[in-house]
Design goal:
The protein is of the alpha/beta class. The strands form 4 sheets. A 5-stranded mixed sheet has the order 5-4-3-6-10, sandwiched between helices. The two termini are 32 Å apart. The mean pLDDT is 89.
Amino acid sequence: MPVDNNLFQKNANTSLVARIIWQRKSISRAEIARELNLYRSTVTNITSYLIKSGVVQEGRLLESTQQGGRKAVELSINPDFGCVLGFDIQPSHYRAVILSVDGTELWRETGSFGFIPITDMIKKALDRALEAHNNIKSPIIALSFALPGIVDDTYGRIVTSFPFGVADLDIRAFLSKEYDYPVYIENDANTAAWLDILKNHAWGNAVSVVADFHEESRMDENIIGIGAGIGLIFSGKVYRGSHNAAGEFKSVTWREGLNNQSGLDVEVLKKTVDDKACLAQWIEDSFRSFIPMLSVIDAEKIILHGRPFSDRQWVLETLQERVPSFLGLLNEYKCSMVFDSQDECVSAIGAAMMCLHNLFSVPDLDSAGQDWRLNWIETIDTLQKQKQ
């Protein structure tokens, strides 16, 4: 469809200004104009629009410059403008959060509905979050879901998810029948990567690893006891690959026909949750597989999330004993290893943060006309209608 250049430029400039306020937390109009190389009149017009729309708020007076003159006014994102509901949906449990537009966590919940169809689980988790939202005054910007498997975020559908046993499932169409909010879905490791860009300053090339135990494997012989996903970050953006399958991890021992991620014995994988010897085998198998990946992409950081990495010292000792070449590679490429395994809601928070990245990103011509993307003009209009 043809691009409205005036509308596109307005969205782009608005996103530029909103993004720098979001990133800096506090900044003056003069600093925005200087850092973005925009006319002060342009910045004044945009910030006036954002303040009038409730996106930005004015705060305290900042210190005068050495040249003197009128003190500048602090600008920041108004946390009450809106919020995003983020979900991490897994076969045995869900994790849900609500983040305000400035990234502040307003609510979270973790739980399980038992083994039920994925659509039932999504709807139940969403209803729990909407109930909690009744006590939050800011309107809803979007709903965002982290899911295991290959996910096509453009069309809002699951291409295939082995953990759930589903394929070609249109989540966006399913939810739009009942809920009138923008819906986004993404692979669970990729949402963690979106969070890492901001939280762990992964502004260059980085790798996010999200691992978790599956205790339900004790009750179901078809469920493997541990799993991991990888989020790839290139130049501060999450890379999805040619078929949305980037990061769908297979270890070097994996063979065609296996339903799990490695060639390790299934009984070993099932025991990783409470047997350190079995977990050590999984760590060796996985980190040997990371060596060629890290050496090729020249990553600045590898960030480890999830309970299998919770004992930092033990993991380092295991790597030193079993995969010293991995640690040697990190040293040679000056790649740091970050342990960020304390928060089990990392993928749910990342799902919400992905939407905020989307909203605050500067649109490019390739994305013009793609109605599923968030933009300021439509978001402001929609949220004002919610408030009414």
